[in-house]
Amino acid sequence: MNFEGLDPGLAEYTPAMHSALDPVLDPHLNPSLLQNVELDPEGVALEALPVQESVHIMEGVYSELHSVVAEVGVPVSVSHFDLHEEMLWVGSHGGHATSFFGPALERYSSFQVNGSDDVRQIQSLENGILFLTKSNLKYMARGGLIIFDYLLDESEDMHSLLLTDSSTLLVGGLQSHILEIDLNTVQETQKYAVETPGVTIMRQTNRFFFCGHTSGKISLRDLRSFKVEHEFDAFSGSLSDFDVHGNLLAACGFSSRLTGLACDRFLKVYDLRMMRAITPLQVHVDPAFLRFIPTYTSRLAIISQSGQCQFCEPTGLANPADIFHVNPVGPLLMTFDVSASKQALAFGDSEGCVHLWTDSPEPSFNPYSRETEFALPCLVDSLPPLDWSQDLLPLSLIPVPLTTDTLLSDWPAANSAPAPRRAPPVDAEILRTMKKVGFIGYAPNPRTRLRNQIPYRLKESDSEFDNFSQVTESPVGREEEPHLHMVSKKYRKVTIKYSKLGLEDFDFKHYNKTLFAGLEPHIPNAYCNCMIQVLYFLEPVRCLIQNHLCQKEFCLACELGFLFHMLDLSRGDPCQGSNFLRAFRTIPEASALGLILADSDEASGKGNLARLIQRWNRFILTQLHQDMQELEVPQAYRGAGGSFCSSGDSVIGQLFSCEMENCSLCRCGSETVRASSTLLFTLSYPEGSNSDKTGKNCDFAQVLKRSICLEQNTQAWCDNCEKYQPTIQTRNIRHLPDILVINCEVNSLKEADFWRMQAEVAFKMAIKKHGGEISKNKEFALTDWKELGNPEGMLMCPSIEELKNVWLPFSIRMKMTKNKGLDVCNWTDGDEIQVVEKLGKGWRWGPARAEEEHGVYVYDLMATVVHILDSRTGGSLVAHIKVGETYHQRKEGVTHQQWYLFNDFLIEPIDKHEAVQFDMNWKVPAILYYVKRNLNSKYSLNIKNPIEASVLLAEASLARKQRKTHTTFIPLMLNEMPQVGDLVGLDAEFVTLNEEEAELRSDGTKSTIKPSQMSVARITCVRGQGPNEGIPFIDDYISTQEQVVDYLTQYSGIKPGDLDAKISSKHLTTLKSTYLKLRFLIDIGVKFVGHGLQKDFRVINLMVPKDQVLDTVYLFHMPRKRMISLRFLAWYFLDLKIQGETHDSIEDARTALQLYRKYLELSKNGTELESFHKVLKGLYEKGRKMDWKVPEPEGQTSPKNAAVFSPVLAL
């Protein structure tokens, strides 16, 4: 089933948000379902639930026969009736599979299929069961033994499988292809391209394959060629489910509405004989699942998420009398299946319960089922008991079969590894009284523990089903008990776990399953990552920034535009803002405002992050406004286009600026009026709000109006009195901004108590609005909430959790009055815009004819930035952002809006109410962004690449002593400008700015806490074709103002002084200048050839599409083998001795080009990979014999001395 577009409540049951299980039963669980059920310590039911004897099944009418608990609290993701035996299979969101035998649902087997991903589809075969997860296909016996485990590409996101015959399987998902897998050889035999990506449901008849897409379309494909024969555009939003029987196809799904996706109550029915739609079938439930149940007629079963089921004929009218209700333990039904005999229906809900409905007291799941094999009874029970307290008892009394085979307990060394326990912390009393002599400490025994006995605390198992528990986390706070922490897992500070390979083996996809890009947090001053994401998802700001390019070396607008471009190109991979933060650290105003944190303060969390990010918010808006407002001057970079805005005002000012009149009234009667503008507002809270404990209601709109139209008494200079006098300062609004930015200023307990109190008042008012009365000192229980209305009415009301800790409105309405006043009120989508009209002597409210005419504007909440209070890690900053339709269209090909949580590289969709819920104990609001409706229509959203080809032409060096004789490259001529697909050899050299931070564990292994910070020092690009092939056209040394810790001369060839403009003899330039050259090459579509380009692009801070990178590291690499150095490859294939004393980027880039030519020669342009595979085997065999070391040359030769370099020496 396609879960996209379902009820927002489903977001609570995704694996990333599923809370850790506790052995105590969920209070929402019906106690009657759990009678006589034994629970193991992990909270999983061990036996099926007995059927109550009072259950009466009427023949021919479906009624509930049994309900069992598969896993307490873990949502059921898929159910499947076994096609060969009388069994029901269930998969969970925790990756666990459980089987039940017969209509009594006796537990048969239970095992883990995947450690982190949910089970998405189950298919029974004769010898076992197929389980499909996100990127894994596992075939297991019915008892739990693995037959094969087929790993798919990590980029795959599989959702559906279809068994076409006994040995062929089709697997589809959100990607643009469908895989065909041979079950006999367990290999991929075919890959079919899909024009419309997102195949989440597949069916088959004797005529067609049917593929259901997330876009709402259903395609009919040929059984042999898999080509599209016909296509039905069923729904405008998304497809939920469909089924085929005979000549009829029925589908249910979602339609696009102004507010998003809405469940369509019309089933689309198609006649497969004429290939056209017939009259849609209107049903009385919200359809989420449907199946044909053909017995005497071709009737349909339509199931809703809330548990309503309706039977109807596909060509008739639906009768409300045909509706029955499944009573799920959880609020939602997650899965539905029909047995092959049509006698049984299975439902799985969000609390882990399975419900079996049948039409007879003794149903059978299949017409002809084979006998199920059960485990043999334990023979040990018949043996006499052994007394273990007897030391002389011979162990030979324990019967052991005589065998010559290897025992199961004899694990091979490859599958077993020692796992030492972590030593417990030293007693605080010992540390306090310890005296040190050298490196040895002495302390008296406090006698708090027994001698030579240390109690070890075993790891708690209550986080087994937590999605993030499978991922290695930060070493900070490992000893803390996670369940004692009130901060939700997804809101905690995330840290990258480094290994020997750096980041290559760190799985970011555990934290981000979307196609949006996160930001890495290990860079200094990366606390602003959340605000960068907020600015990026403002469409006018994103387009404006990417169109900007100026002459300044350290321009925040330019660097932010480069970073936005990387976020555009990324498909879920994290980016890093190293170049932006590098420019940020050079701005004097940032240092003066205290925005530059020291590494120690940032790591320990000493700074107040809430105040810091609010100051940063004001700084970045002011800085961008100034960068856009500067006068157009001759461009330092020839690729820079014209100024995006005039010198008078910038587009940033038009978006954020609010024009005001500041009036100062002295007690002498003189009034002074001055015009000003501001880019954001700061909330000003009512005085004495903390002392008022009666719960006085104060709308957010009232506080906002008070903050905008601020009135205060202060001492000011009066020209009339010619001295300082008490004056009344008032502020009137002349023009409202298009984007309303608000700093919350919750910096003390007083403001926090005000938010908490207003949230409680709003909570009580919301309950009264929905029909409930709450006394002042009454706590509401779950049973009280059920009495607030009938089920139909409750579906229209928000849930209990959605109303808690909410004071902030999703929309506000502002109106400019004629007397320069401002009306502000909270706004809901059901309200009608009204304006004040004058009628005779009075005023009245009437419907608005046009918003703009009367100055009435509605602002919608777009983002909230919150401060997470976490004593373990010092706190962090996260953002809730409402991502618009244009971003989803570019990334996912669908048009809808969705709220997301951005926590550095953790990105997760959330319910919209979570964005306005602030538990002041750990989640404190810092910044709010409100956006005027229809904002995008006012601004040009076109992005024109401002980088032109002239950036590649010759330019002057920053070095004063550079001479022409030292020139190592020839710039490109106009007739040599690269074209799409041209080859460019690339290599880069780096220097170290900060050493890495690591800790040494007790077992002697090293753990990297923070990697070394590298900076690019030299970039070389070599021509890859033409008469001048092999001659560099870029060889730039990058000037740096930051202190270099290590020049790495042995590996980089960079010497002290090469990067200093005063003494360097190299072609020295700025990082921005060289960055623009590489950006132009990427945008034009050239293909870069090099060795280890992934690290090069990462340090340069570039995002390059994978199809534009030809890395010799991977071209000459075999799976699960070591990477081979460029030096060894050059010696083995080219008979070249390179990198003798130091590395040279020109030499390395040219060698990589030659290796790529050799690869094309050996593989016949990639057509004869088998023969090339044999060459690689010989390479690895030679490498092992040589210990991967190049023999010392008798006479040192190098490609530097080749004739191809002579034109450069002639400069």
TrEMBL record:
Keyword tRNA processing: no
SUPFAM superfamilies on file: Cysteine proteinases (SSF54001), Ribonuclease H-like (SSF53098), WD40 repeat-like (SSF50978)
GO cellular component terms, A-Z: nucleus; P-body; PAN complex
Principal subcellular localization: cytoplasm
Binding sites annotated in the UniProt record for a divalent metal cation: 987, 989, 1096, 1148
One GO molecular-function entry: poly(A)-specific ribonuclease activity
Similarity comment text for this entry: Belongs to the peptidase C19 family. PAN2 subfamily.
Protein name as catalogued: PAN2-PAN3 deadenylation complex catalytic subunit PAN2
Activity regulation: Positively regulated by the regulatory subunit PAN3.
EC numbers: 3.1.13.4
Domain notes: The linker, or PAN3 interaction domain (PID), between the WD40 repeats and the pseudo-UCH domain mediates interaction with PAN3.
Description of how the protein assembles with itself and partners: Forms a heterotrimer with an asymmetric homodimer of the regulatory subunit PAN3 to form the poly(A)-nuclease (PAN) deadenylation complex. Interacts with ZFP36.
Subcellular location: Cytoplasm, P-body; Nucleus
Species whose genome carries this gene: Galemys pyrenaicus (Iberian desman)
Primary enzyme class: hydrolase
Residues of the USP domain: 517-933
